[in-house]
Specification:
Blueprint (H helix, E strand, L loop, with lengths): L5 E3 L2 E3 L3 E3 L9 H9 L3 E5 L14 H19 L4 E5 L7 H11 L3 E4 L7 H4 L6 E6 L2 H15 L6 E4 L5 E2 L4 H6 L2 H16 L2 H4 L4 E4 L5 H10 L3 E4 L13 H9 L5 E5 L5 E5 L2 H6 L25 H10 L24 H8 L2
Helix pairs in contact: 1-2, 2-3, 5-7
């Protein structure tokens, strides 16, 4: 049975699957465009999208903003006008500039996590760009919705709930990320859904999307049965021909075992889930010496950060020889991927 379409305001995705944003250089225009072409929602990561351009080292912000707009345009072309969004970490410096570039570039929506995007409604005022925060607790949802309702007379167009089995940065403690079961977290999911629904009489339908550990159709059906309107999937799309990451990065997923997937400390100030390679093992013993700061994250101090996350992520997609000097983020279920695929094959599997 085919999945029910996902409608967010005046835009509708034929398939209720949002491809999660993955930076650096993992979900750019090729992957986002391919997902949107299949009827889902493709997401470009705003984390250093210009990293592979020669001018990036000297002018990272300006280069990133130009690259972001270029990738949105290209993804739109690939998808034949499909739905394209941007994931922007609230922990990013120059957050407002990335929001503006996304709007100017023609993005249909913005998803924002790694912090609470309290100012996002103001930044998107007088635009038709949809937006959603990423939350992991009903407490976070209440903080945002109460503030937005009071200050702006609105709430977000949709909301993404990210559970403890997600990849990359997590809104949980290390212990929660490792030990909380799906059944336990389902209670939080239901509480968030109930809270969001309480605003629908005033503001109309607010779709709820679940992210974190969604791998197959049974997972999708589970969260739809809980009351969600769609899901966000990231890890599942990495080992595809269309993913923007190089073959070495994709093969790290294909070759990973369950024991290879661990929780790491991130300079963002949150735990993160990644593949345990030599770089991760070394960081368990000592911090990396920082020789150059790209001023990309609020609250990141080169003097005491465990490593430069920008360069650690760039090394992961730049050179296969640098795999053991890089950070490879992944979701808990990355070990279930054992072969290369295509975006179309995944959609055919999930939507039938």
């Amino acid at each position: 049975m085919k999945l029910k379409p996902l409608t967010i305001g005046d835009i509708t995705a034929e398939v209720p699957i949002i491809q999660g944003g993955m930076g650096i250089g993992v979900s750019l225009s090729r992957l986002a465009g391919a997902v949107a072409k299949e009827g889902g929602i493709g997401i470009i990561s705003a984390a250093q999208p210009g990293f592979d351009r020669p001018e990036w080292t000297k002018n990272p912000l300006e280069t990133n903003l130009v690259a972001l707009k270029d990738h949105i345009k290209k993804a739109k072309e690939i998808s034949n006008g499909g739905i394209i969004g941007v994931n922007i970490m609230r922990a990013s410096k120059n957050y407002g500039d990335y929001v503006k570039a996304s709007v100017d570039g023609g993005a249909d929506l913005i998803i924002s996590g790694a912090g609470l995007p309290t100012e996002l409604p103001a930044l998107l005022k007088d635009t038709n760009v949809k937006f959603a925060p990423i939350v992991s607790s009903v407490k976070a949802a209440k903080v945002l919705f109460k503030m937005w309702d009071r200050r702006y007379g609105r709430v977000s167009d949709f909301i993404v709930i990210e559970g403890p089995k997600a990849g990359g940065h997590l809104g949980f403690t290390k212990e929660q990320a490792l030990n909380e079961t799906r059944e336990e977290y389902d209670e939080e999911v239901k509480a968030i859904i109930e809270y969001v629904r309480s605003f629908e009489e005033k503001y109309g339908k607010i779709p709820v999307i679940f992210a974190g550990g969604v791998f197959d159709r049974s997972d999708i059906d589970h969260y739809m049965d809980l009351g969600c309107d769609g899901v966000q999937m990231a890890t599942r799309f990495v080992a595809t021909e269309e993913c923007d990451a190089p073959e070495s990065f994709k093969n790290a997923y294909v070759n990973a075992t369950k024991d290879d997937i661990v929780i790491v400390k991130s300079p963002v100030g949150m735990p993160g889930r990644a593949i345990r390679n030599q770089f991760v093992k070394d960081r368990e013993e000592a911090n990396e010496k920082i020789t150059h700061c790209f001023a990309c994250l609020e609250g990141c101090n080169p003097a005491d950060t465990p490593y430069c996350i920008t360069m650690a992520l760039i090394r992961a997609v730049r050179d296969p020889k640098e795999y053991d000097t890089s950070l490879v983020f992944c979701g808990e279920n990355a070990y279930k991927i054992n072969k290369m695929s295509t975006v179309k094959e995944i959609f055919d599997e999930l939507n039938s």
